[in-house]
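Example 384.
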Amino acid sequence: MDILNIYNPIKMHFGRGVINEAGNIAKKYADSVLIVTGKSSMQKSGTLDKLLKILKNAGIDSTVFDKITPNPTTDDIDAGADIAREKGVGLIIGLGGGSPLDSAKAIAVTAKGNIPVWNYLKTAAIEALPVITIVSTSGTGSEVNKYSVMTNPKTGEKPGFGYECMYPKEAIIDPEIMVSMPPHVTAATGFDIFVHTLEAFTGKMKNIFSSAYCMQAFCLLEDNFVRAYREPQDLDARSDMALASALAGLAIDMSGVGIMHALEHPMSGNYPNIAHGAGLAGLAIESMKYNLKACRRDFMLIAHHLGIKRMKRSEDEYAYSLIEKTEEMLASINLNIRLKDLGVEKDKLPKIAKEAFTTMGFAVQNNPVTVNEQDALMLLEASY
Ligand code: NZQ
Ligand code: MN
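Predicted structure in complex with 5,6-dihydroxy-NADP:
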């Protein structure tokens, strides 16, 4: 048996209404907090006000930093860290989708040091303020992992980073917060879960624990993804999607992602209007075809977990049925798209291919089939 180190220190609280425990949970860490959130969704749904009340009732003093955009920038993270330092808060609460949660972790690190967040790509962080995540999308898995993804607005580069001190202390995963997601957000974020499971299950760093998480996540996705897309208020579907997101988030924490993520980050880095999951949707089919030769057994196993019957198909045909199933899934959530539909300009493809290696090299390395820059460009062109 190969040496295997498994570690995840996060306390996770799942279920309808668990946001009501936020006061008691936060109180364990500090009596003054910075809430990091986006510009509008948590205000509109009333979740931010609800959280403020819960914290106030627990005697906690809150400051709100609501400047985080989708695909968050280093400028906003550094500004958030300045506020955390000025206010002397003892805890950061991330409230929202992956963008505010990633920013909360990055702010927690930056507030402890005297360098801009970008420098942490080279300088390892050894301490951070404690973080609690309260997640509002089912997608990135950021609620339960150590990663933070940030965009340099000057260059368009969008790397991820993650140190042990960046694990959230506790995660509050309440499906009632997710029902306000409109269908296009459910579609993009839900497809992100699918790609996490696919890439963690087939990557070079796969292990028995991440694979177990992925298999359960595939079953949950099969039963609930399209349902949550069609019926936003369906709390059972929302609950199961929240579980799938966490399972997949734990899986990528251990086993990483692959070529789809390596190519997507520079896409939404250079085009911040692209939702991460929509970018993945544009890249998935060609990337799966590229990886098929190394993933026949894994693709068959996934096909099985997604409920596809083998019938009289050969192994090759059964493995390929996963690609057909993915196309069907994308059609049912209205995300059967090409890169040009996302507004990517063709002459930017070489820059995107290059940045996959300079900013997401670890994901390229983890891909089951070797990829060089020429292959990456070919994949982008085929997806255009
Ligand atoms: O910005 P606000 O006003 O909050 O609105 C958001 C945003 O417009 C809205 N939204 C979120 N929850 C909602 C809601 N609207 C109504 N009801 C709700 N309950 O949805 C839009 C997208 O939000 P965002 O947080 O950007 O989406 P997502 O959760 O997909 O996060 C994407 C970011 O996470 C990174 C991505 O690269 C991207 O920057 N990732 C982080 C990962 C990690 N930490 O492990 C892994 C992923 O692969 C990914 O790279
Ligand atoms: Mn992702």
